[in-house]
Amino acid sequence: MLSRCPRIKTFALCTIITWLLNSTIVCVQAQATIHITGVVVDPNGSVIQRAKVTLKRDQLFVMARTTSDEEGRFELVGPTAQNLWIEAYSPGFDLGEVWIAPGTTFPLQIVLRPHVISSDVTVTSRTPMRISETAANVVVVTTTDLTTTAAITLDDTLRQIAGFTLFRRSGSRTANPTSQGVSLRATGASGASRALVLADGVPLNDPFGGWVYWNRIPKESISQVEVLIGSASHLYGNGALGGVIDVRTRKVTGNTLSLGASYGNEMTNNASVFAAAKTNGWSGSVAAESFHTNGYVLAPASQRGLVDTEAGARDLTMHLRVEKSFGDRKSLFGAASFFGESRTNGTPLQINRTHLRQFVFGGTWQTVSADSFWARAYGGNQVYDQTFSALSADRNSETLTRVQRVPAQLFGLSVQWSRPVTRNQTLVAGFESREVRGASDELVYINGRPSSFVGAGGRERTVGAYFEDLIQGSSRLFLNVGGRIDRWRNFAALSATRPITSVNPTSVTFFSDRTENAFSPHASVVYRFNDRVSAEISMSRAFRAPTLNELYRSFRVGNVLTLSNENLRAERLTGGEAGLQVHTKNQRIVLRGNFFWNEMTRPVANVTLTATPTLITRQRQNLGRTRSNGVDLQADTNLTRRWNLSTSYLFANARLTEFPANTALEGLLLPQVPRHQFTFQARYIDPSIVTFGLQGRASSSQFDDDQNQFRLDSYFTLDAFVSRRLNQRVELFVAVENVFNQRYEVGKTPITTLGPPILVRGGFRVQLGRQ
């Protein structure tokens, strides 16, 4: 009997274990399951095959795994649970994560972004090519960069690129638009840009003055910004002395809605929205943005008077676009945009406002033989109004001096053809034409009373043709040879003065028609020593024709009067650069360094004519020759899957080397060009916890005038950004610009004006539909 007890215990134990196992299986079978479908794509919408897709709970426990098929699609089946996450990975891309929120609809779209954007992504300037295969120094500001920075405006975001500067260190948040001309790599900032700014290939530079309205493109509609640093007139023609900034807007891949809004101190608020739909080959989008700030007092407390008030701004912009695709090879589109802004410029009598309307039509076509055609026709009109005043020495009173209206019209056409003639060679050719007409109509005041009507203006017509030959000599050698011919003509120009208080007749002066030509050649070589190290060298010429604003419009800032000059000629630049690019095997660290040399003849500058305690008079003149050389360094490191750190540094020695008309200026530093610029960005991204970013920038001192008398001191500012996702669609954020409230100098006229104080904003973003 006792011998049978172990058998009975064993049988009983086996029976219990069997019952527990059967109960567990039944429970698992009875548990509800979730069926997840989706597709893995890159930022351009192309499918990614054989991507590894994992279903996790709490981002730790693996529930199921699969691999995307030839169409990028995947299916996962697993038990339902709280805090489910989908992770997708493919070599060369960052890890993609999606939180499965309650009510999430399928199929999902998981977008994987290139692992190191600065070395791997294919950029599109005039010609699509990888950065590693071109000598062009290209910085790509991605959607992630745009959405994890504290900057509220696009130009402040781009300040994180060393060498990007606006006239007088100003920013579009509060500065007069005529001071928002952009410079890249020490070409010298002025009201007129020495870099070309585009939106999807269409110029954004003001047609009359060359400055940029940085809030014209709603932020929610921007997908990325490509910044080509270095002269590029061989492809882009007029204005691309220092490089090209191309703002790329979002492609419509399906029904989507994006909304972002924020509010901060100084009554600063903005809201941006992008909505799009796509069906049966048709797609359409609407984007809009509004911005307002009361601003701040520009003058330091020690120099203020009764007339010093806040410099504020408000603007509204809207973009509409409709596109029709005919299969995968043809498409046509039409777009229209509207922009309006008004500003107070720091005193009661100084204000300005702008109204702008623009249209764009275009299309693309790719033939069976691989020929690609690209065309754009664009045009529009605008009106710019501004008032000027004279201030008393104690800044307790001001007197109106001028009321100015600047109407301008623009029409342009751009056509491009490209074709791979062999496996290792691609030819590109294009044609561009543009005509601008504009005038400056002024009512002049003397002692506070209207005295005369003064008007000046004219027309400018530009025609250019370019070619480019891209050759891959071997797996290590890449050649790029190109050139462009431009011809422009200033005509129908005149100035007229009609007194109001006297019987004298109207005085009219007709300016002679003028024509100039420019040939802008370019050659570059890239050689790969191995998969980690490559060297590049390039030489080019570039030019910038004077704007109608420089030729015919005078202006006054504080007690500085700047006169126009109808005899200005085009600036010409000859430059070269050589550099190295190094990256680790896993591309976690990418380093790039370039030595550059630029020599400019006939640069347009504001030259001091006379100076008194109450008025400094300057005139735009062609200098003799300037030289700028230095080094441009960039580093991008992915410390971990979530941490990223990038830095850039620019050293520039920019001086006036020849000016026979005033040899006393020779050897002086170019105004508006600091010798040292440094920036850094640190970013941590964990969608389930927090996204955090720091952006810092430092600049050495620079001068605000041609005589190197008005020195602007060095400065450092730090911005911070933090956000938290409530779910897959909604995100809350806090952004702080100028964390330490650094009051740095941005101008001396000769009164000092200061940069913006600390700005703290809180806001949200909502993403619905396909992104």
Q: How would you sum up the global shape? A: globular
What structural category do the secondary elements indicate? mainly beta
Give the terminus-to-terminus CA distance: 76 Å
The main β sheet shows up as: 22 strands, antiparallel, barrel
Q: Helix tally?
A: 6
Gyration radius, to the nearest Å?
A: 30 Å
Mean pLDDT: 88
Poorly predicted sequence stretches spanning 5 or more consecutive residues: 1-30, 115-122
Helical fraction: under 10%
Q: Would you count the extended β strands for me? A: 47
State which percent range the strand residues make up: over 45%
Give a short overview.
The chain is mainly beta and 771 residues long. Helix content is 6%, strand content 58%.
List keywords for this structure.
771 residues, 6 helices, disordered N terminus, 5-stranded mixed β-sheet, mainly beta, 22-stranded antiparallel beta barrel
